[in-house]
Design goal:
Largest sheet: 22 strands, antiparallel, barrel
Strand content: over 45%
Helix content: under 10%
Number of helices: 4
Radius of gyration: 28 Å
Shape: globular
């Protein structure tokens, strides 16, 4: 009840805040000042920069604007007089220019204005402005990984766990505002289905964009939103790069090297990443199942250890064909090897019989090889600013071999000590092509058009092996062995229109996607052939208010396509009593997403609030239940559970999100993010009842700069309890601390990080269905210390402390 009142009061406060700012129109002032801001060294546009006009005589504020995605700005309704134009953007020197407007010349078109990056020499000490660790725009959040010390030595999982509103569970599933099925992009392109966040080192990531309500330009897949991971790629003259080495407690090592060399029209780039990590964990399971008149209780405890090695390399080149055309080619090759061992003790109690004690061993081994080839083309027009044509072709080839095994080490005779294995051979190929075109229809209006095709094919087999009596060989069990194939073809086209009228910005878009899915399992366990055509509209309206404020409302329709392991009726055994199988009859789920956001910057303080509502139809849920037929056929005094997937009911997720950045002192800054939202979904009980709860997330990051070369970050994260179709997941919270000392006149940096310093992060899940109740507790190794050393060469430099206030941004529509 208290959380509900808090939620209502927060909504009222937001509505009252927006209503406080009336529209001010000064009809007598019809002058304008326009121009375009570019980076002095790269000539790249500078979006989201603040541009203000000050009176020349007393420097009082007159009017202001923000630059668009292409760096353009227009300050309107300005009276005649003398002014000082000032442009500011984080990481660049303030720009000033004197302007005079007269009755004869009421407008000033300044053209291109180039701003230099901040670099001021003071008695041998260089003080350089930098981007904030988190840039919170209304339509997306941008996380600058170089400023996030709490991901040092980690992977993309560690990066995302420090992103506001994002949570990553221990299986690697990403959720945004409590909604799973988030689409991951890498360098602006959808990642293949085999992509794993824990295999991408954090040191290779430049920044992460979290786009909660994507426009029609993005693929409609991903009901939770889009996360775009941008990889590092330098384009500075000469040789540049950085080398990183990290060592972690209890056998954790990783290293990376990023280099580039630009000479004339060609820029060569390359990288290498390697890791060798060992992890430990523990867990327990308490489960009660009823089959007919028999009730069996399972109590299980175990410990596990896993080891993984990864080697990945990337090479590529940018070539300037002409001043307006660029071609980029790149190749990525990676290999991952891992294994895991779990020893667990099981106690089975059936009705009032004496308990049965078992000692089990479970293991799996995996090898994955992946090759990615891509080519990008970009064309601009010198005489038509804003006009742009881009094209991309990507090919991905993946080969995976997995062996999963179980063995009873000790137990009664009805549980034979035979080893069982499942061997998986998976091959996957993906070919994608996309063309995007932007055509300006005026200084503040443009039309975007695009076409995309995505063709995925995967095939493989599963061999079920049983250990022979001589304990030396294994025999393939044909009745439990399968081959499969799966094809997914998606063809899409979109159009978006964006314009600005005064202080109003509008964008509307429509995306059409045709999907064809086919697959089969041999021997036949369920073939399917689905095809559907969908339309996905999107719209955004934004209003700039006086005092560096902005209000924005947006809508988009999206879907979540099941992956091939959810479709294929292929039994995959976790152990002898639990297996997972796909469902050929499931359908995609569809989402309607609405957002209303407000943002204001007050000096070095920025505040952003967003209310959101996400409605999901044909909700796709994972269901675990007792397989009564398999239980009876097993002939053993326990039970077998099956996990599968179903569409049922509707889910609603709505709430309020708030983000604030506040300097406390010159050496201390606080960034706080929080959300409270309500989850509503249809219960798996089958009686159409809704289950709901209030939950939320919170993140508090303290950044300290006790000296000019020392940075310290203390970050705490919290995720409230979340309901599922069959139960709930308990809350999770943790605290990380990191220190970085810059060395050798900023040619190197030494970093120390400790994750989950209080060792509080653990996973607790409850689930229940007809005849089944289960509680899972898992505690993986989360308190880890990392010591890292980074060396920079060429023009590369470590990120410095923030000398200016964080820039909130507010422009753009995520297109």
């Amino acid at each position: 009840m208290n959380s509900f009142l808090t939620f209502r009061r927060a909504l009222r406060c937001l509505g009252f805040l927006v209503a406080l700012f009336p529209l001010v129109v000064q009809a007598q002032n019809n002058g304008t000042v326009s121009g375009k801001l570019l980076d002095q060294s790269t000539s790249q546009p500078l979006p989201f920069a603040n541009v203000v006009l000050l009176k020349a005589q007393d420097s009082s504020f007159v009017a202001g604007a923000q630059t668009a995605d292409n760096g353009t700005f227009t300050v309107e309704k300005v009276a005649s007089g003398s002014y000082m134009l000032r442009a500011t953007v984080v990481g660049y020197q303030p720009f000033k220019k004197a302007i005079t407007l007269t009755a004869a010349a009421p407008s000033a078109q300044l053209g291109i204005l180039k701003i230099a990056p901040t670099a001021v020499q003071l008695k041998g000490v260089v003080v350089q402005g930098e981007k904030a660790a988190v840039v919170d725009n209304l339509d997306k959040k941008v996380i600058n990984v170089s400023k996030d010390l709490n991901s040092t030595g980690g992977t993309a999982v560690d990066v995302l766990q420090n992103v506001p509103s994002v949570s990553v569970d221990q299986s690697g599933q990403v959720s945004l505002r409590g909604t799973p099925n988030v689409t991951i992009y890498v360098d602006g392109k959808p990642a293949p289905s085999t992509f794993r966040l824990d295999q991408l080192p954090a040191s290779r990531i430049e920044n992460v964009e979290v786009i909660t309500n994507p426009s029609a330009r993005y693929s409609a897949a991903g009901s939770g939103g889009v996360i775009n991971i941008t990889l590092k790629k330098q384009q500075k003259d000469g040789w540049n790069g950085q080398a990183v080495a990290n060592v972690g407690t209890q056998d954790k090592y990783n290293t990376s090297l990023n280099v580039n060399r630009k000479s004339g029209k060609i820029n060569y780039f390359g990288s290498y990443d390697g890791s060798d990590n060992r992890w430990r964990g523990a867990g327990n399971l308490h489960q009660v199942a009823t089959v007919g008149n028999s009730t069996t209780r399972t109590d299980q405890e175990g410990n596990n250890v896993s080891h993984g090695t990864y080697h990945g390399g990337r090479i590529g080149a940018d070539y300037d064909l002409t001043d307006n055309q660029k071609l980029t080619v790149a190749a990525d090759l990676s290999r991952n090897k891992s294994w895991e061992r779990e020893n667990f003790n099981t106690l089975l109690t059936r009705n009032s019989d004496a308990p049965i004690a078992l000692r089990n061993l479970g293991y799996d081994q995996e090898q994955q090889r992946e090759l990615d080839l891509s080519g990008d083309y970009r064309r601009t027009w010198k005489n038509q600013k804003g006009r742009e044509l881009t094209a991309n072709v990507t090919y991905v080839d993946v080969d995976v071999d997995v062996t999963v095994g179980q063995k009873v080490l000790d137990g009664p005779a009805e549980y034979p000590k035979q080893e069982r294995q499942q061997k998986y051979d998976v091959g996957l190929s993906l070919l994608m092509g996309q063309v995007d075109y932007v055509h300006p229809l005026g200084e503040k209006t443009h039309l975007d058009l695009g076409l995309k095709t995505e063709n995925l094919y995967t095939s493989g087999g599963v061999d079920y092996l049983l250990q022979d009596a001589d304990a030396a060989t294994f025999t393939r069990q044909d009745a439990f062995s399968y081959d499969y194939r799966y094809t997914r073809n998606v063809h899409a086209g979109y159009a978006t229109y964006q314009t600005e009228v005064g202080k109003w910005s509008y964008q509307g878009g429509l995306r059409a996607e045709y999907t064809n899915l086919t697959g089969n399992v041999v021997p036949s366990l369920g073939n399917f052939n689905q095809h559907f055509l969908n339309l996905f509209p999107s719209a955004t309206v934004a209003r700039t208010l006086p005092g560096d404020q902005r209000v924005q409302a947006s809508y988009s329709r999206r879907l979540n396509r099941p992956d091939f392991m959810q479709f294929l009726a292929l039994p995959i055994y976790n152990d002898q009593r639990n297996y997972r199988i796909g469902n050929p009859n499931i359908r995609p789920e569809y989402v309607n997403a609405f957002e209303l956001g407000y943002q204001v910057s007050m000096g070095q303080t920025s505040l952003s609030t967003t209310t959101f509502w996400r409605q999901t139809n044909q909700s796709l849920q994972s269901i675990r239940e007792v397989d009564t037929a398999a239980t009876r056929l097993s002939g053993q005094p326990d039970f077998i559970t099956r996990t599968s997937y179903r569409n049922f009911g509707q889910t609603n997720n709505y709430g309020l999100e708030l983000s604030i950045t506040q300097p406390v002192a010159k050496w201390w800054k606080i960034t706080a993010n929080g959300s409270i939202f309500r989850n509503e979904l249809t219960s798996f009980s089958g009686d159409s009842r809704n289950r709901s709860n209030y939950t939320g997330t919170a993140r508090l990051m303290n950044t300290f700069n006790p000296t000019k070369t020392l940075d310290v970050q203390l970050t705490s994260n919290y995720r409230g309890a979340v309901i599922t179709a069959q139960g709930r997941m308990a809350s999770v919270y943790s605290t990380d601390v990191a220190l970085r000392q810059r060395l050798f006149n900023d040619k190197a940096a030494l970093t120390l990080r400790v994750s989950d310093i209080f060792n509080t992060k653990r996973q607790y899940t409850e689930l229940y269905s007809e005849g089944l109740t289960a509680n899972f507790r898992n505690k993986r190794e989360t308190r880890v210390g990392y010591l890292g050393f980074t060396y920079y060469f060429g023009n590369s430099k470590p990120s410095k402390k923030i000398e200016q206030g964080p820039k909130s941004g507010g422009g753009g529509f995520g297109g």
